[in-house]
């Protein structure tokens, strides 16, 4: 099991092997985390994303792609597209959100990376209920952590204290259940 850390901060300033971008399917920047990462990374990130779009047409919900990081401190950006919340189909959305986390870690491990920083995927303009999303994120990451991979540290970078409290509660509950 790798170490799981929790911080309240700015994902764009994380000095890790990879930061995960809560991207949209076009990969061409947007609002929230996506826009912040694109602005901080500079034009190189957008150019790499355009290349991916030209080759494969973007990224599907729950899937991932990797690029360089431009001017970020991180070495790579793993882009994942989270689901847009719709309560009437929640049972189909939860596995897609979990896939964002597990597929990001699979891609990081495939590249031999040791540290990955995640935002709170889909909880901004995509409207996913924060508590539900935190539970899914913690469950997916801890499940992946049982594998033997190059990954040694996963950091949940919460934008605010509200999200951090939820993540801490689920991390503590998961640790207590293992004891």
Q: Characteristics of this structure?
A:
179 residues; alpha/beta; Leucine Aminopeptidase, subunit E, domain 1; six-stranded mixed β-sheet; globular
Description:
44% of the residues lie in helices and 18% in strands. The protein has one domain: Leucine Aminopeptidase, subunit E, domain 1 (3-Layer(aba) Sandwich). The protein has 179 residues and is an alpha/beta fold. The two termini are 14 Å apart. It has a six-stranded mixed β-sheet, with helices on both faces. Strand 5, helix 4 (130-144) and strand 6 form a beta-alpha-beta unit. The model has no long low-confidence stretch (mean pLDDT 96).
Q: What would you report as the Rg, rounded to the nearest angstrom? A: 15 Å
At CATH level 3, the topology is Leucine Aminopeptidase, subunit E, domain 1
**Chain-averaged pLDDT:** 96
CATH class: Alpha Beta
The chain-level structural class is alpha/beta
Largest sheet: 6 strands, mixed
Itemize the secondary structure elements and their pairings.
Blueprint: E1 3-8, E2 18-23, H1 32-41, H2 43-56, E3 64-68, E4 76-81, H3 90-110, E5 115-118, H4 130-144, E6 153-158, H5 161-178
Parallel strand pairs: 1-6, 2-4, 2-5, 5-6
Antiparallel strand pairs: 3-4
């Amino acid at each position: 099991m790798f170490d799981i850390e929790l911080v309240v901060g700015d994902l764009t300033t994380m000095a890790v092997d990879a930061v995960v971008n809560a991207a949209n399917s076009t990969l061409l920047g947007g609002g929230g985390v996506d826009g912040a990462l694109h602005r901080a990374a500079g034009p190189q990130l957008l150019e790499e994303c355009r290349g991916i779009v030209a080759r494969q047409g973007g990224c599907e919900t729950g899937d991932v792609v990797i690029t360089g990081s431009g001017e970020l401190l991180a070495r790579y950006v793993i882009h994942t597209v989270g689901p847009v919340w719709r309560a009437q189909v929640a049972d189909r959305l939860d596995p897609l959100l979990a896939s964002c986390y597990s597929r990001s870690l699979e891609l990081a491990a495939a590249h031999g990376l040791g540290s990955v920083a995640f935002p709170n995927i889909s909880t901004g303009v995509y409207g996913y209920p924060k508590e539900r999303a935190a539970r899914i994120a913690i469950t997916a990451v801890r499940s992946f952590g049982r594998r033997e991979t190059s990954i040694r540290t996963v950091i949940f970078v919460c934008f605010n204290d509200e999200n951090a409290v939820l993540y801490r509660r689920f991390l503590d509950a998961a640790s207590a259940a293992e004891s």
